[in-house]
C-alpha cells in the first residue's frame, strides 16, 4: 500500500507551477503598464499663432500675451497635395520683429495636409518637405530669430504612422540640431506604430481637442472632453517621450439645414453664406473646464508632460475665439470670473434704454428674463432688441424676455448690448430686476 502519490504526477505539478510563474513574469514585463513618474507645480504655457496674415491686431495680441506666455509657436507654412505632388504651398509672412521684441522662445510650425503615400525617407515628397523646413529655419535666422523647434502638424491617417516615422527621421537629419516635434491625435495612441513614431522625434504635442459631427442641432457638442483629456495624457505618458498638451480657446459655427441635418461648420475667418433656412449654432471651448484641467495637472501630472500650448492666440478682431481676458485668467491659475448685469440709460428724459453688460472675464449666454418696474399707463411705446421682447406682467411691471435662439446668443466679455427701450409720457426712473439669467 502506497502512502505517497507516484513521482510522475509530482513532476507534472511542479512543471505546471513553473509555467504559471514564467507566464506571470512575462505578463508583467510585456503587458502591464509601466510605472509613470509623477510631478507637480507650475509648467510652461505657450500660445499658438495660427493666422496667415499678420495684421496690426495680430501683432498687438502677441505683444499683449508676451507677459504671460512662456513661448510662442507660429504657423510658418502649409502644404496641400494632389496625389504625390505638392499642390499648394502657403508661406506666412511672419512679423519677426514683434516676436523678437517679446523675448520669448519661438517655434515654427509646418502644416501638412493629407497624403496617402508613398513614404520614403529619400523620396521626392520627403525631399520637398525637408527642403521647405530648412528654408523656413533659414528665413527665421536671417531675420534674427533662432527657432527653438520645428513643429510638424501632419494630417496623417492612422494606418500611415509607420510611413510618417520615415518623414520625421528625414526632418531630423535635415534640420539638426533644431528639435523636431510632431502634433499627435489621441486616436494614434492606440496604434502599435505610435511608440516608434513618438520616439523618432524630439517630443510631441498631444491635441486633446476635436469636434465630432453632431446628429442634430440639439445634440451636446464638446470641443474638449476633460475626462478624456486626462485619460489620454496618462496614456501618452507611457511612451516615455516628453510631450505638451494642446488645449483649445477657439469655437465653431455649426450649420444645420431645415431638416436639422448637419451640413458644415466654419471657424475663425471670412464669413460664409448659408442657404435660406439654415440654423447656426456656436460651439466654444469651455473656459472653466480648461481652467480645472490646468489646475489639476499643476497638482499632479506625469513628469513627461512638460506644459500646455493654447490653440490659439486671442486677437481682438476674433469672433469665435476667447477674449484675451479669459485666457489670461486661466494662465494665471484661476477660473475666469463671470459678471453679467443690467443697466438703464437715459439718452432723453422720457426715454429709457435697457442695457445688458458683461463685465466679467468670460463670454456668457445672453438669455435672460428682466422685470422692469414702471406704470403701464405712462408707457407710450417700447420695443426689444437682439431677440428680446416685452411682455406685460401686471399694471406696474413689464418684462423683457429673450425669445431668440438661445444656442446662438452669446454676449462676449466686455460687451454691452442694448436689448430694449421704453418711451414714457413724462420723465420717469425705471427699476430693473433680473428674475432669471442663464449661466
Please give a structural write-up:
The structure is a single chain. With about 450 residues, the protein is α/β, with parallel strands linked by helices. It folds into two domains: about 40-330, Glycosidases (TIM Barrel, Alpha-Beta Barrel); about 340-435, Sandwich (Immunoglobulin-like). The chain has nine helices and 24 strands. The strands form six sheets. The protein has an eight-stranded parallel β-barrel, surrounded by four helices. It has a four-stranded antiparallel β-sheet with strand order 15-16-23-19, with no helix packed on it. The chain has a four-stranded antiparallel β-sheet with strand order 20-21-18-24, with no helix packed on it. The protein is elongated. Mean pLDDT is about 85; it is low at about 1-5 and about 25-30.
Describe the protein's topology:
Elements: H1 7-30, E1 38-39, E2 44-49, H2 56-65, E3 71-82, E4 85-91, H3 96-102, E5 106-112, H4 124-142, E6 150-154, H5 161-175, E7 180-184, H6 194-200, E8 204-207, H7 226-237, E9 243-248, E10 251-256, E11 262-266, E12 279-284, H8 287-299, E13 301-302, E14 305-311, H9 324-331, E15 340-348, E16 351-358, E17 364-365, E18 368-373, E19 379-384, E20 388-394, E21 397-402, E22 410-411, E23 416-424, E24 431-437
Parallel strand pairs: 2-3, 2-14, 3-5, 5-6, 6-7, 7-8, 8-9, 9-14
Antiparallel strand pairs: 1-13, 3-4, 10-11, 10-12, 15-16, 16-23, 17-22, 18-21, 18-24, 19-23, 20-21
